[in-house]
């Protein structure tokens, strides 16, 4: 892949952008404007050389996250959080991006439920 990691993430989930608000790197809404459910794309959490050629890095490896944040406790499969989680998972699978998924659960400090997909992207 030759695209920057954030573009790879965006291309994977842009088909659901009309249904779920998507932010790149940071969510910049004020407290009164935070959507009920949104995705946060974070690229280059770690970025390391992956393949060298004659002492020069040819390919880099970037660890990235896609985090779904939804207000409230998601206890049923029909809750907005779980519906959106299925949409994101389907978008990643359609894009052919391998991922590790983590249920981060309910965070009482922000009164929201979170789920994260970790994606490794190789680019040159």
If you had to describe this structure to a student in words, what would you say it looks like?
This protein is of the alpha+beta class and 124 residues long. It is 20% helix and 46% strand. The protein has helices at residues 5-13, 80-95, and strands at residues 21-24, 37-53, 56-71, 100-107, 112-123. It has a 5-stranded mixed β-sheet with strand order 1-2-3-5-4. A hairpin with a 4-residue loop joins β4 and β5 (112-123). It is elongated, with a radius of gyration of 16 Å. The termini are close together.
Give me some keywords for this one.
124 residues, alpha+beta, 5-stranded mixed beta sheet, 2 helices, 5 strands, 20% helix
Summarize the structure.
The chain is built from two helices and five strands; from the N terminus they run H-E-E-E-H-E-E. It is an alpha+beta fold and 124 residues long.
